[in-house]
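Question (not urgent): is this output format expected?
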Amino acid sequence: MIICNTSNGQKICKKDVCVVEFNASWNDKNKVVWLDTLEDCGIVRINIDKGDWAKKYNITSVPTVIVFNGKEVERFKADLSFVLAIKLEDVQEIVNEINMKRF
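Got this back:
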């Protein structure tokens, strides 16, 4: 199953459930530090400074975290301070629910 593709058709993530963080280099200090500790999903970090990522995925604030399962399932956007106010448990719960529905 292809989760989401680049403009040239390459897969962004090779897992059925994928969590993608879109951020910019100028906001690296506010990256989602716990992202790599998510379990049972693919994880990708995308820098929107290059390419058409922001336009293609309608990224209006950074960081933005999107959970994909063949299509977008959930989106979390930063507030005006460019900080994402979600916790690991919030995203892991969504990933777990998706995985439970698959079986």
